[in-house]
Amino acid sequence: MKLKLAESDNELQQILELQNANHYNNVSSTLQKSDGFVTVSHDFDLLSNMNKKAKQIIAVDNGKVIGYALVMLKEFKNMIPVLIPMFDMFQNIAYHDIKLDDLNYYVMGQVCIAQEYRGKGIFKSLYQKHKEVYSPQFELCLTEVASNNLRSMKAHQKIGFKILHTYSDTTNEWNILSWDWK
Prior knowledge:
The chain is an alpha+beta fold. It has a single domain, classed as 3-Layer(aba) Sandwich (Aminopeptidase). It is built from six helices and nine strands. It has helices spanning about 10-20, 30-35, 45-55, 85-90, 120-135, 150-160, and strands at about 1-5, 55-60, 65-70, 95, 100, 105-115, 140-145, 160-170, 175-180. The protein has a seven-stranded mixed sheet. Strand 6 (about 105-115), helix 5 (about 120-135) and strand 7 (about 140-145) form a beta-alpha-beta unit. The model has no long low-confidence stretch (mean pLDDT about 90).
């Protein structure tokens, strides 16, 4: 297995296939509780445009994408309607007395590991690769995780993410998490 930046349309398509397989609509409630799930679905054009601006971090085993951690820059905030409220909140949430919107950050757009590869440290490795590649350019990595996605919450906190804010919408209760790189 190796960690790398996504470079080809084939790799982007494999990200979408892994995303679809782990989307909450396609995962049983039992598996959601034990293994987690992803909430947002990207289309190829959006993912390709995101990748052109900031390469996505992927884990590959024998040419197959078995994990990914997506970079979502501020400029894409209006491209996924379900995420707009999160980006809007950044105007009102402070981090060390500075509004998030005034800081140099990007959003971890989503992280997912193929079921048969979970528990092998790939999650942590994907995040470490993010820090290696993007910490020279950004102060914070932000993400949003559903409160009932316990596996994801624990994994993010183990990496070093801290809860900045919790809120509810019509779909779920959400935690906005930050990982300070400065």
